[in-house]
Amino acid sequence: MISASSIPGARFVDPKVLARIGNLELIARSVVDGLINGLHRTNVFGASVDFAEHRGYVPGDDIRRVDWRLFARTDRFYIKEYEADSNSNFSVLLDVSKSMGFGSAGLTKLDYAKMLAGCLTYLVHRQRDRVGLVAFDDEVVEHVPPSAKHMDTVLHVLDRLKPSRPGNLRAPLQKVAEHFGRRGMLVVISDFYEEPDAVLEALGPLRFRGNDLIVFHVLDRAELEFDFDTPSAFEDLESGEQMPIVPQALREEYRKMIRAHIEAITERCKGARIDYTMIDTSAPLDHALFKYLSMRERLMKAR
Asked: Minimal CA–CA distance to 290: which of 303, 82, 298, 282?
């Protein structure tokens, strides 16, 4: 099985270093172009499945996809396009609730999620898909409809998003499911700060309306390991309620609980045919993008 670390050209830049760049488009181009160059050299993912049409060659296109037989007849360069290349709808559904503002090492979950969303948007825009964005907490707070011309708009909106209110998955995602008339690919990025059954109840309508659904569960390393040392008051990330805790006394029990929570969401997503992956915000963005490409390739083959 091929892993992200085996791809030459993928740079695996520390997300904290990327965040200092401050320019979301530059971050996206840097990460995506590095990964794609590595994928081209290894031919990890096939071109696609079903042939759709030809289009004129433009500088930067992969020369391996030139139709040389058509060139021999017309003396012009044409690229073979496939179903995966041909203008499908892609939208990121991004959780911007209060809990996404947590970060134990200077980089918050929302910082990481915004960079991931920006990279995904740039990646699928390169594939000539229509890109869109929905940001939500307990309601939809930003909506950029999918369009071939909306990449810059998506990146601009992402750049200004900040966590504010407590979240609720069900209401905003239900609204999205009701108003997205055309089927496509949806990527949900959230810390899923709710019970597993509530998570599935919120995600279900998106999947059952015929969309391909990919879920990134974004968590901070401290939320996974609970590696705090000093007794102190811990604050609920959504309600703000504080409770005095001695970390060493609860660490092992907490780790069991967070593992059980992740496993429960994983199983529920699997049962609903939703592609799920947990992302540690200390992990390089290349890892998350590679997982997205792997899941997309599998979805295309399953059609």
From this structure: 298
In this structure, the number of other CB atoms found within 10 A of the CB of residue 269 comes to 22
- The pLDDT tens digits for 115-164 are 999 999 998 888 888 999 999 999 999 999 999 999 999 999 999 999 98
Apex 270 CA angle, 267 and 275, nearest 5: 125
Residue 50 amino acid letter: D
Residue ranges and CATH numbers for the domains of the chain are 4-43+87-302 (3.40.50.410), 51-83 (no CATH)
DSSP state of 66: B
| Interior/surface letters 205-221, b for 16+ CB within 10 angstroms, e for the rest | bbbeeebbbbbbbbbbe
Q: What is the pLDDT of residues 26-61, one digit of tens each?
A: 888 888 877 776 554 444 443 343 445 677 877 777
Please tell me the pTM assigned to this model: 0.80
Show the DSSP H helices in 13-96 as ranges.
15-21, 24-42, 68-74
Report the distance separating Cα 119 and Cα 289, nearest Å: 8
